[in-house]
User: Fold this.
Amino acid sequence: MKIAIGSDHAGFELKSALLGSVLKGYDVLDMGTDSTRSVDYPDIAKPVAQAVASGKVDYGILICGTGIGMSMVAGKVRGVRAARCSEPYSAEMSRRHNDANVLCFGARVIGVGMAEMIVEKWLSTPFDGGRHARRVGKIE
Ligand code: RB5
Assistant:
């Protein structure tokens, strides 16, 4: 499983924490940003979403202040199903029912512990398929 991750300045510290904990051992492509210097979240979200859409990676994780801007941008890329999740239940259901391939959350909304639980749940939950596959097909 290959994962692309990206954050803006607001999400940089949380991204670094996750790379050093729950994402250790995964094949992760860090697509920036690389400091707390201010950047524009669309400039990070678009290449991460395109990496997922093109099949270069299997999943994407995007972090900004709220997770909202990242999810708006990622969701505009054809083939991307971005889910903004602030707790593990939504993260689980976004995989089981929506086959989400990009996970977004806000570093100013949740702490490191919650983010780790969300990422763990999201990466370990498969798509249920069945009737959900029909619905996901209709998104496209
Ligand atoms: C940056 O201040 C903030 O607007 C950004 O991180 C994000 O929350 C946008 O949705």
In short: Residues 8, 10, 41, 64-66, 68-69 surround D-ribose (CB under 6 Å). Helices lie at 12-19, 41-53, 68-74, 88-96, 112-124, 131-139. DSSP finds six helices and five strands in the chain. The first helix runs from residue 12 to 19.
